[in-house]
Design goal:
Helices cover 80% and strands 0% of the residues. It is an all-alpha fold. It is elongated, with a radius of gyration of 23 Å. It starts with a helix and ends with a helix. It comes from Amphritea pacifica. This is Excinuclease ABC subunit C.
């Protein structure tokens, strides 16, 4: 058994560390992902040509903001504030586009 244990120990030393194989995301990574996702959704919302498409992208932005409010998610206060600004901009853009659409339909 001792020989078998030594072999296992040697194999474990040769295997890459778990972090090397599957790097874990840090808090800053999740903040970057959240912000970039919200910015992409905002740009798609601005290009959307229908109410349903705008509503879809607006909902995506709302989800990013909602997740940022979760405790323990590793979202920084600065990220949360930027997501709130993006959400506010999306809200105004979506509402203005709806007003314009209603005017054109009349």
């Amino acid at each position: 058994m001792a020989a078998n244990t030594r072999t296992r120990a040697n194999q474990q030393q040769l295997l890459p560390n778990e972090k090397d194989r599957h790097p874990l995301m840090s808090d800053s990574d999740i903040n970057t992902i959240m912000l970039n996702g919200a910015k992409i959704s905002l740009s798609k919302l601005k290009r959307a040509r229908s109410f349903d498409a705008r509503l879809y992208y607006y909902a995506e932005i709302s989800v990013y903001l909602e997740v940022s409010l979760s405790r323990g998610a590793g979202i920084a206060d600065g990220t949360r504030k930027q997501l709130e600004k993006i959400h506010t901009e999306a809200t105004h853009y979506h509402m203005d586009a709806n007003k314009l659409l209603n005017i054109l339909e009349e």
